[in-house]
Design brief:
Layout lengths: L2 H4 L21 H26 L17 H8 L1 H32 L6 H9 L6 H12 L6 H8 L7 H4 L1 H26 L3 H9 L4 H12 L1 H15 L4 H6 L11 H11 L3 H31 L1
Helix pairs in contact: 2-15, 3-15, 4-9, 4-12, 4-14, 9-12, 12-15, 14-15
């Protein structure tokens, strides 16, 4: 018997270079550059936002500088525009999600039934989602909702009615209409894909039992889409909190502050009022709110996925 075997049954095999603890390939050296770059890309803007939120920094007057402490936040919380912008943000997010998810579920159930030209109809249904937000806003502003040359104005005049200046009379509703047009295809696509995975035999059994289309929708199809609806709400809410292009192109945040959400308020403070300190303070508030909403939605979706 060899000396090696007498000392404990043989020496432990050496771990090959480049392999992890479990014997697999160690991918840390491959992932490290991209992870470090991603962290820098995320942390540097966040750190600069936090830094400038506690300083006096005006782009027009370099003499206004120094440490401001919490004065930027105090001034911001005393500004009525902050509360109004938060209210506008909530109205936009909740309104658009309710409309797009509700209509998306109904349209998904309709498109799930075979009919002539179904493929072309699906393509037309999802096509608005691939239009750039700025282009969508320009199309709705100049071609559809314009009170002089818009399509809706021509329809109103055809029936002897007075055209409406939509962005002046119903500014927030007009912006939400554009957002619904943009996000309805996304909700439809996710929910329609969820319905495609449904067993057709279950629907046939319900029809044989005498269930009406409404019974099938509310009792079978809608519960089947519950997880997809949760994911759709989470993703839409995260993106709708940062809506900017549609407001900038159409109303410019007006009339007054009627369509000024939190994102547009930050733009106004930074690039219209040239107050980088106040804009950074508003940006910190936006970051905190976005993280709270994201954490809550992520937990809600995770619980539904575990069921």
């Amino acid at each position: 018997m060899s000396a090696t075997s007498m000392r404990g049954g043989g020496a432990a095999p050496r771990r090959a270079k480049g392999r992890g603890p479990g014997g697999g390939v160690n991918t840390l050296p491959l992932l490290a550059p991209s992870v470090v770059l991603l962290l820098i890309w995320m942390i540097v803007p966040l750190a600069m936002t936090l830094y400038f939120s506690f300083r006096r920094y005006n782009l027009l007057n370099p003499m206004i500088h120094g440490w401001a402490g919490f004065n930027n936040f105090k001034f911001l919380f005393r500004d009525p525009a902050l509360l109004h912008s938060l209210l506008v943000s909530v109205i936009i997010v909740v309104g658009v999600i309710v409309i797009t998810v509700g209509l998306g579920a109904v349209l998904a159930a309709i498109f799930n039934q075979p009919f002539r030209g179904q493929g072309i109809a699906r393509v037309l249904m999802i096509s608005p989602f691939f239009v750039m937000p700025t282009v969508s806003a320009l199309v709705w502003k100049n071609l559809l909702l314009d009170p002089v040359n818009g399509l809706f104005a021509a329809i109103f005049r055809f029936f002897g009615l007075q055209p409406v200046a939509w962005f002046s009379v119903f500014p927030l509703g007009s912006v939400m209409t554009i957002l619904c047009w943009e996000w309805l295809p996304y909700a439809f696509l996710i929910l329609f894909t969820a319905l495609q995975s449904m067993d057709e035999e279950q629907l046939e059994a319900a029809r044989l039992d005498g269930a009406s289309p409404l019974d099938i929708f509310f009792s079978i199809q809608l519960p089947h889409m519950a997880r997809a609806i949760s994911v759709t709400i989470m993703i839409e809410m995260i993106f709708l909190l940062g809506i900017f292009a549609e407001i900038y192109v159409t109303t410019g945040g007006g009339p007054g502050f009627a369509t000024t959400n939190l994102t547009f308020l930050i733009y106004q403070r930074a690039l219209l009022a040239f107050n980088v300190g106040g804009a950074s303070a508003a940006g910190v508030i936006a970051i905190i709110l976005a993280n709270i909403v994201s954490a809550f939605l992520t937990r809600s979706v995770a619980k539904r996925l575990e069921v």
